[in-house]
Amino acid sequence: MTDNAMNQDAGLEFDGPHGKEPIQWIEEGILRVPYIPDFRAAELVFYFVPDRRRIEEVYHSLPPRLVDRWSAYFTKKGWKFIHADPASRQAEGPFKVRPGKIKIDILEPGRLFAPKPQFRFKESGDGWPVVSLEKRRPFDPWKPTYIRALNFIKKYEFIREVPKVVDYCLWEIEEGGEVAGSTGWENAELILSDHVKESAAGREVLADIFEKRPEDFPLGSEVYLRVLGRSGPEGFQKVCDLARHPQRLKRCHVARALGRLRRPEALSVLLQLADDEDPEVRGHALCAIGKVGLPPSHPAAEKIRRLLESTEVPQRVWAAEALLRGGDQSQEKFLLQLVKECPMPLHDMGELGEILVDLKMVHSVPFLINRLKSDRVELCEDAVEVLRGLTGLDLEFHPHGEDETERRQAIREWNRWWEEYKKTRRHG
Fold it and tell me: Are the C-beta atoms of 249 and 210 separated by less than 8 Å?
């Protein structure tokens, strides 16, 4: 473990039970447990006893809002540790693994004993016991005892042999599709991604499960396509091939997945789906083309440009987004004009708010502020979310509240931000 692997970022703090503590970063880390935990691995912070250079034990914690919810995962020793005064802990921390850099390894249980949870650094083969974490997965009372989504996965016959951990992940993901508030499936997706990258058999199984699973709970389909698409060229091609699925909902999923992947190679498939017999599939395909972008030189560019005159506002938005991402900067003015003049909520305009944030269209800020002055709650609500995303100011704003003080204060703050932004631009 090196000093560069753990550096402290100024100003970043963990809000622990006894107040804020400065976080130190771990570049990559591995949590090794005999089950898929319900809490998000990305939320974990770690403390090393006695310090990071002479580790004997590791303790974990979670943000205060999650500690009580996942209290069953803490051992008595761990519970006592996180509630102790930091000065008395004789430990170094908190440490947090860089976003997207924590990996979960599943330890296979023995016939008699469950293996102890461990933490290790990516560059080190050594593992240290996480003494604050239970060896067995606690019972979750908020999960139902019978889940319809598992009927399929119970009966599914694997077309290729895969590691047992893949089976664990599939069960967790299918269960997560039905259980409101479930987060364990996110850990399952991380684990599944690691296995599928290196496994042709894993990719074939995921494609087969997607083709055969019912769509009562769409989460599984979304996850499997996401994992496939990011697993390399073969996985991406499998996602493209699945666009020929006879079921309408499956083709919708493929179109959305290709849009999220944002790879130009998907354009030919998305343009085919844009001519699908089903209007819902066509809509998802056009939205995805907007996410990928369409260069002016593309043979389909003129066809997409004609949609700028469509009577359907979402179609106009997605066409403009596609052309803008392809290099046609004039479409930014068109989108800004919609924000300024169209009386529809941003959500109903093809999720225009998400597009503004994604493309960092800061020049929409004054028009969004004007929307906050409207008496229509639906116009204010999504404008607030977009303003938070563009400015980074997480201001309280309740458009349906009787007290206008909060509304006026928020508008003043965002106006002040806009004026400062313009000054910075002029002098920058």
Answer: no
